[in-house]
Amino acid sequence: MAVSATDLGFEADLFKAADKLRGNLEPSEYKHIALGLIFLKYVSDAFEIQRLKLQAEEYADPEDPEEYLAARVFWVPQIARWSNLKANARTRDIEIKDPITGKDKKVDIGGLIDAAMEAIEKHNESTLKGVLPKDYGSPSLDKTMIGDLVMLFSDIEMHAEGDNQTTDLLGRAYEYFLSGFAGAEGRRGGEFFTPRSVVRVIVEMLEPYKGRVYDPCCGSGGMFVQAEKFIEDHAYAYREDNANTRDVDMAKRQISIYGQERNNTTWKLAKMNLAVRGIDADIQWNNEGSFIRDAFSNDKFDFAMANPPFNVSDWWRESLAEDARWSHFGTPPQGNANFAWLAHIYHHLAPRGTAGVVLANGSMSSQSGGEGDIRKAMVNKDAVDCMIALPGQLFYSTQIPACLWFLARDKSANGHRDRRGETLFIDARDMGVMVDRTRRDFTDDDIAKITAVYHSWRAKPEDLEGLGLEPYEDVPGLCKSASTEEIAKHGYVLTPARYVGSEAEEDDGILFADRFAELRATLVEQFAEGRRLEERIEAALVGVTESE
Fold it and tell me: Are residues 293 and 412 in the same domain?
């Protein structure tokens, strides 16, 4: 199955082909096997591309690991190069030198892959130590299946270098596989993966062109991948005549990425996900998580993006009672972490920082545990910039309806108009299309519509034309800019439907009396049909009784 860079739909075919090889393995176990091999293929191919470049340079040394480090490419020792794995994919007894002990030993393809992972970690300890999966040699794994996967991934032409861009097929494959496995695992899958279309809404609303980007519960790193993708797209968009790889690389270096993840397995997925995208990031892991052991306690960020677990009830510890993070809006209820996440994220925003957070719908209206008072404090402090109601069935992990909170540290500045005393409400519940029997996604048009409303609302009037935006207007059923006084009248409930109202219906020109008569006639006809059906059923029952 040869794959070209222009085949933009190859990920689904590749996932189906790989899934056929899974056999009886659970998706949660197979996920690490497949994703680990995609990572290994990526770093090996990137290494070979850089190696060819160095061989063409007069004074470069293709055998010097520092030459690769300078180009932000992992050094891949001989044992871990994909050509070696492919050549031995069907071999039973492979003689190798153990990368850790230095001793000679015989292994199968699974053992060779484990050795390859060990070798790569050893030569790239600062980034990859303890990250890569090393269970391919397990006796319980079918080595024929592993060899088949190696051969399947061998057909991917990873990079296609055109005049203006480098297409990273394996980065796309890794993201698609994460999505596919999240769908297969259901609720557990949602713990490590946020649907791409939801992430895109957050990223394109915030527009993180430059600065420090933060996610306190980063999962597999999807927010960061989309932030870099946003920069790539706009680096080309704004440099149509002369955009090149250098332009994009320079644009990417304008942002720094920071994240924390409590689940060690998910943290490893994030490290690999960012690596296959060539993204440098400071991703921290500890068992306690961001509330108990904040890895960035003294740091402030320009952008924060997060999809924290909904309605967590066991988050509180007595050590948090006097925490500085609660000084902004009050102490969150001990039985639900929703507002603890909002307070944590707001606390970490720089003076002009902004944030986008996914939360359960209950966060917009709940009064339990003092949540209503916290919401009131947030609105009165002008911390809430925009609220978006989302459609159902967007997420793998839950059917609980969700919403997006957009926070701002300073609504008077940051290059936009002064929005103090105003909050934007957007109702997107009717948007999106069903992509399968159980899940919905936003379309490109949906995302463009939502973000255009927000950007028009916050933009300075003199900037609208240059940004290609129309002046903002309230649209019944879609959006409403509400004053703090109006929000207060609604008891500081932030559900968009309370503010946007219903979509205006077009007048069809038919008089009410005529329309009513028409509807009444239809209803009378339906009543009559109902009675006829009742008579037929009764007659049938009589027939059954007599036959007995």
Answer: yes
Residue 298, token pair as written in the block: 């003294």
Type and span of the H or E element at 434: strand 433-434
Helix residue ranges, H only, 411-481: 444-458, 464-467
Q: How many structural domains does the chain have?
A: 3
Torsion sign, CA atoms 415, 196, 14, 68: positive
C-beta of residue 424 within 8 angstroms of C-beta of residue 387:
yes
In angstroms, the Cα distances linking 376 to 373, 381, 407 are: 5, 8, 14
Question: What is the value of pTM for the model shown?
Answer: 0.82
Give the type of residue at 353.
G
Secondary structure percentages of the chain, helix, strand, coil, to 5: 50, 15, 40
**pLDDT tens per residue across span 378-431:** 999 999 999 999 998 887 656 778 999 999 999 997 789 999 999 999 999 999
Q: Cα separation of 392 and 198, whole Å?
A: 12
- Specify the residue for token string 């003294």: 298
Domain ranges, residue 44: 10-176
User: pLDDT (tens digit, 9 = 90+) per residue, 192-220?
Assistant: 578 889 999 999 999 998 899 999 999 88
Tell me whether residue 506 is in a domain. Answer: no
Question: Domain for residue 3, yes or no?
Answer: no
Helix (H) or strand (E) holding 351: strand 349-360
